[in-house]
């Protein structure tokens, strides 16, 4: 399905996703387990790592500079999202989606979206809190209330033998964006699935208010959210894992590829004039 979107709407969405990032960025966070890393987490760091902090002095910070891509520099993008959860009883939940936006020479903008969600529960009678590895005496909460401009990755774990990873990759290139092939996906803006008892759910949606991916199990939740920026707030990408149980295998993955276009001489002149005006006192 291809949908024509207003240029203002696309510019706002792209700005929310791109303007806060440099020419290439990779963010990853995980929790380590003594058990083997599953296939879908093969690219994640399976080794346990403690929290490490390194102080940066003012003399270093004073020379730091940054750069950003304005909405007029972005001509298209491809966004790929994937969240997976595997429970110790063999039940699995998957939510996956892709969004491609392109702008042609006539400044016409088109978008294509695909979504997929599935839940497989081989347990007779359905997965419950007692056969899912969930710990009724453990809680993992609070991360859902954190609000950060830019990219945030939060992992909260209460239990043993868990494997989890949050990974986000953002890149820029001059190639036209191509929508990834998603086996079983439909050309729809949303998809959802659940087991027979509703104890395991998977869902993904693309809308005017952003992108939302959610997995719910008796042992916790995994979410990915993209909130567009506006005049009141900057855009945000948030990945969250909350596990209250044992032997859970969870992963959030996000890939954003932005297509850039060269600035015309007129755009360069306009930018120079704008910067000069801002420097006037």
Keywords:
42% strand; disordered N terminus; globular; seven-stranded mixed beta sheet; 281 residues; 3 helices; mainly beta; 13 strands; six-stranded mixed beta sheet
Q: How do you describe this structure in short?
A:
The protein has 281 residues and is mainly beta. It has helices at 7-18, 58-61, 265-278, and strands spanning 2-4, 24-31, 74-86, 92-103, 109-120, 150-158, 163-173, 190-194, 201-207, 210-217, 220-227, 236-244, 249-260. Mean pLDDT is 79; it is low at 1-12, 18-24 and 44-48.
Q: Can you describe what's shown?
A:
The chain is mainly beta and 281 residues long. The protein has one domain (2-278). 11% of the residues lie in helices and 42% in strands. It has a seven-stranded mixed β-sheet with strand order 1-5-4-3-13-7-2, with helices on one face. Mean pLDDT is 79; it is low at 1-12, 18-24 and 44-48. Residues 1-27 form the signal peptide. Keywords: Signal. This is Peptidase C39.
Uncertain spans: 1-12, 18-24, 44-48
Oligomeric state of this protein: single chain
Computed CA radius of gyration, to the nearest angstrom: 21 Å
Q: Determine the structural class based on helices, strands and strand pairing.
A: mainly beta
Q: What is the strand tally?
A: 13
How do the SSEs run, as a string of H and E?
Answer: EHEHEEEEEEEEEEEH
Helicity level: 10-25%
- Main sheet record: 7 strands, mixed
Give the total of domains. Answer: 1
Number of helices: 3
Protein name: Peptidase C39
Keywords: Signal
Signal peptide: 1-27
Organism: Paraburkholderia guartelaensis
């Amino acid at each position: 399905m291809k949908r024509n979107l207003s240029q203002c709407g696309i510019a706002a969405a792209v700005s929310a996703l791109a303007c806060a990032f440099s020419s290439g960025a990779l963010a990853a966070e995980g929790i380590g387990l003594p058990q083997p890393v599953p296939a879908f987490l093969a690219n994640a760091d399976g080794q346990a790592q403690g929290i490490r902090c390194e102080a940066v002095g003012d003399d270093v910070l004073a020379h730091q500079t940054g750069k950003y891509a304005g909405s007029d520099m972005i001509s298209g993008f491809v966004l790929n999202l994937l969240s997976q959860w595997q429970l110790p009883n063999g039940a699995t939940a998957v939510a996956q989606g892709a969004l491609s936006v392109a702008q042609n020479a006539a400044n016409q903008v088109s978008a294509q979206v695909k979504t997929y969600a599935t839940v497989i529960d081989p347990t007779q009678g359905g997965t419950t809190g007692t056969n899912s590895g969930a710990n009724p005496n453990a809680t993992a909460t609070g991360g859902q209330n954190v609000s950060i401009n830019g990219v945030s990755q939060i992992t909260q774990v209460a239990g043993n033998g868990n494997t989890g990873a949050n990974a986000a990759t953002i890149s820029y290139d001059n190639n036209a964006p191509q929508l990834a092939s998603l086996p079983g996906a439909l050309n729809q803006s949303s998809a959802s699935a659940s087991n027979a008892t509703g104890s395991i759910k998977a869902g993904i949606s693309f809308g005017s208010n952003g992108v939302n991916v959610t997995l719910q199990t008796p042992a916790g939740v995994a979410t990915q959210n993209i909130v567009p920026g506006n005049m009141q707030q900057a855009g945000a990408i948030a990945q969250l894992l909350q596990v209250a149980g044992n032997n859970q295998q969870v992963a959030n993955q996000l890939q954003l590829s932005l297509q850039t276009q060269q600035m015309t001489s007129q755009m360069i002149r306009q930018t120079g004039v704008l910067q000069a005006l801002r420097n006037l006192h």
